[in-house]
Amino acid sequence: MMSRYFDSSQTEEITIYSENHSDQEPDYLAQLTRETWQKAINPRMLSGKEQGRLLSLFSKMIRPIKIIELGTYTGYSALCLAEGLRENGELITIDHNDELTWIQKKYFELSPFAHCIKTLNGDAMNALNTIDLDVDIAFIDADKVNYLNYYKKFRGHMRKGSWIIADNVLWSGKVIDPKAQDEETEAIRTFNEFVLNDRGVSKLMWPIRDGMTLIQIIQ
2 pLDDT exceeds 50? Predict the structure, then answer.
């Protein structure tokens, strides 16, 4: 029996239907989304409702004690991941841009998770050299050129059973465009191939929004 697929012209309606049959984001996240679109540069960098609910659900499944996020932006993904933290758990989020700390702080304090989120400003690799990387979840959403370096750094410290999540792995579709040869696209391609060939992990590249790869360390 052949599978039936919805007409591509119905994609927006299907998205709305799917969102209406999923958990709704907390009010403070909806407010954060609005203010990000009103006041921040490149608001498309926001994880958004669909991906945010996925990160939340994934974190609730893992029940992490410690999470490290690379790339805070306005704090949306950090707040989603924090929803699954165990009691006394901690999320450390790192970003080089200190111009958005005001909006991060505002919405962290509006949430129930201000006490368990720690923000660091500065170079991500330098920051990683100063903290314990034995974490349950590492979320990579920082500069694309260093994706592989971040991955290797976490792989060298994280234990079996822990998870790495990498965002933007489809890079607006440029990863399959032979004409796209800019530094960031090449870096994402290199990262994707390295993860594919890493036999010590299980991995799933998920074409949600700009692509997200879920990686579990198995050895």
Answer: no
Q: How many residues does the chain have?
A: 219
CA-to-CA distance for 67 and 89, rounded, in angstroms? 8
Q: Which two tokens stand for residue 176?
A: 């399959």
Instruction: Calculate mean pLDDT across residues 149-166.
Output: 97
CA 153 – CA 125 distance, rounded (Å): 9
Among 2.60.40.1180, 3.80.10.10, 3.40.50.150, 3.20.20.300, name the CATH number for the domain at 44-217: 3.40.50.150
Cα 9 to Cα 6, 12, 21, 34, 88, distances in angstroms: 8, 8, 20, 27, 47
- Which pTM was predicted? 0.93
51: tokens are 């991906």
Question: Of 122, 54, 132, nearest to 90 (Cα)?
Answer: 132
**Coil, helix or strand for 83?**
coil
**Which residue has 């004690």 as its token pair?**
65
Do residues 211 and 170 make contact, with C-beta atoms less than 8 angstroms apart?
Answer: yes
For the chain, give every domain's residue range.
Answer: 44-217
Distance CA 65, CA 89 (A): 4
DSSP secondary structure letter of residue 158: P
Q: Is 82 helix (H, G, I), strand (E, B) or coil?
A: helix
Pairing mode of beta strands 201-206, 212-217: antiparallel
